[in-house]
Amino acid sequence: MKYRTLGKTGLNVSVVGLGGIPxxxxxxxxxxELLERLVQLGVNFIDTARGYTVSEEYLGAALExxxxxxxxxxxxxxxxxxxxxxxxETSLSNLRTDHIDLYQLHNIKTQADFELAFSxxxxxAALQDAVKAGKVRHIGATAHSVDALAELLRHPEIETVMxxxxxxxxxxxxxxxxxxxxxxGVIVMKPMAGGSIEDGTLAMRYxxxxxxxxxxxxxxxELAEAEENAAAAGIEGPLTEDELARIETIREQxxxxxxxxxxxxxxxxxxxDIPSCFLxxxxxxxxxxxxxxxxxxxxxxxxxxxxxGCGKCEMRCPYELPxxxxxxxxxxxFGE
Length: 336
Ligand code: SF4
Ligand code: SF4
What we know:
This protein folds into two domains: 3-240, NADP-dependent oxidoreductase domain (TIM Barrel), CATH 3.20.20; 274-334, no CATH class. It has 14 helices and ten strands. It has helices at 28-41, 55-62, 81-95, 111-117, 123-132, 146-152, 173-181, 200-208, 223-233, 241-254, 274-285, 290-298, 312-316, 323-334; strands spanning 3-5, 12-14, 18-19, 45-47, 71-76, 100-105, 136-142, 160-164, 185-189, 215-216. The strands form two sheets. It has an eight-stranded parallel beta sheet with strand order 3-4-5-6-7-8-9-10. Strands 1-2 form a two-stranded antiparallel ribbon. Helix 8 (200-208) packs parallel to helix 9 and helix 11 packs across helix 14 (323-334). The structure holds iron/sulfur cluster (2 copies). The site of one iron/sulfur cluster has 15 residues, from helix 13 and helix 14. One iron/sulfur cluster is lined by residues 268-270, 272, 274, 307-313, 323-324, 327.
């Protein structure tokens, strides 16, 4: 296993970490087996979230007696002081620990998000107080749009950023270089493009060749996935001609039909959160997280079926995705 320093946190993290979403669909016992194997493989970084249903709890149970083997990261959608402070306490309890190494603002997106989170009564102030109290060691944030990532890099309180990066989503690369210059750690989410890329070894090789990325966190629930991802980190040398050719093939196959979650299609005329519809469809079909995807989809105020076909989103999508057609597929998959 290789290790890199996670920006100004100074944490020496393995370049492969555990993305905690799929833990929801296994058992605490299987989670324990997974963590034991990760220790053997040299993986020392775990990321989860308040929003991943039982993920924090399963990880907390599995970590009994192994807490010192991992750096623990979690995150919350709370934007104000009170709710973030409460979420920190819940995470500590779920994870059965007295400190969390990295607590992140989860999916920060709008201007209103930033204004509240970074205000005197905001979530960041709550996290800073948690740091003073020794409950949290470092503060980070996650985002899906380039604009939000750029804004995060203007806030020195933020020690790490988490952003999608993979063979078909490289829109964050220039800002990863900027993050490196500012000594901000870069955590890569969606390394397999939400399950669209099936060659896990190639996907990890593509990300890890970029020294501006500190750690990639593929979702893992099976021992074989952990072994494949860890093995990919051990392959030396630049991408080969064959790997480059396979990357081009994947790009050709996915490029015309893959949502990069850039958000340029917004606002939808009827208020549909278009990228979230596609994301939930991915969890439903590819990640075997049907219940979770259905619950989150059910909570969305405007469903894919509400599309009136005005076409305005498609005019704004830089990747020329057939959004209306794809939303019909989402509506069919969820039945609404
Ligand atoms: S075509 Fe459908 S999804 Fe696109 S803006 Fe119009 S209503 Fe919204
Ligand atoms: S549908 Fe197009 S514009 Fe909208 S988020 Fe996806 S890639 Fe971006």
